[in-house]
Amino acid sequence: MTCTKCDEEVHARGLCSTHWASLRRRLMAYGKWDCFYVDAAAVQKHVAGLRARGMGHRRIEALSGLTRAALQALPNVTRVSRRTEAIILAIPLPACVFDPILADGAQISVIGSQRRIQALARMGWSAEMLAARVGCDRRRLAALTSGQQTKVTVRWARRIDELFNELQDVPGPGRKAARFAELKGWAPPIAWDDDTIDDPNAKPQHDAHRFVSFAEKYEELRDHCLVTGLDAITERLNRDDPASVKRQIERYLEQERKVAS
């Protein structure tokens, strides 16, 4: 292919090296030069953020369409093409560990799953019962709750979350399990908000040794204290997030409907 302005071989954008250099100088002089490459810092930071939230290289590769070699080279480059930057920055950061954008096999922190299982144990659900319901071996669940396991796949975290949502307001039959959990100092479900249970830096909001279930607290406020309104209930429960309290009320009402039917 030859230059559009002469018979020399094309160097870039349909121009030979001489005409290309001339065009580049002219555009730069008029402040219209749009460099094909940009600083790689923003892309590197975004990829690091994706990785920190549980997204693996394979998932990033699938979502971006970039080759594995290109992704592996990113930490060591100073500039990337505008196209690469646009593609990478278009991948949203997962909003939570259960974000659908995360692949089932992605490895994430075990903290949230560990707290959920420990909280259910505090409600009287033994490791055997929980293992049977979630579909795994008791020893695997024990490794998770004891801290021997530091990572869990998103697939298992989602299963445990589903079980937690189902049983968090349902007292289990295992008094021994509840006593063991109490002695270990494990926090009950009421001690966690939906937006804190997966946060490694978060602390339970209530004293785990003076546990009253959410259902009992809500019924007392509703039936005896005549407290109505989401904001008022949230305040009386000494909670920070009305949206989290609303979800717990909805789960409570759903459980009530199941019992009534």
Describe the model.
There is one protein chain. The chain is built from 13 helices and four strands. It is elongated. The mean pLDDT is 84. The protein folds into four domains: 1-34, no CATH class; 37-89, no CATH class; 97-209, 434 Repressor (Amino-terminal Domain); 212-261. With 261 residues, it is mainly alpha-helical. It starts with 16 loop residues before the first helix and ends with a helix. Helices cover 52% and strands 5% of the residues. It has a two-stranded antiparallel sheet with strand order 1-2.
Q: What portion of the residues fall into strands of 2 or more residues?
A: under 5%
What string gives the helices and strands in order?
HEHHHEHEHHHEHHHHH
Q: Write down the CATH class of the largest domain.
A: Mainly Alpha
Architecture (CATH level 2) name of the largest domain: Orthogonal Bundle
Output the CATH topology of the largest domain. 434 Repressor (Amino-terminal Domain)
Number of strands: 4
Cα gyration radius (Å):
27 Å
Q: What key phrases describe this protein's structure?
A:
mainly alpha; 4 strands; 4 domains; 13 helices; 434 Repressor (Amino-terminal Domain); 261 residues; two-stranded antiparallel ribbon; 5% strand
Reconstruct the topology from this structure.
Elements: H1 17-29, E1 37-39, H2 41-52, H3 57-64, H4 68-73, E2 79-81, H5 82-89, E3 107-109, H6 111-122, H7 127-134, H8 138-146, E4 151-153, H9 154-167, H10 175-184, H11 214-224, H12 230-236, H13 242-260
Helix pairs in contact: 2-5, 6-8, 6-9, 6-10, 7-8
Would you kindly provide a brief summary of this structure?
This protein is mostly helical. It is 52% helix and 5% strand.
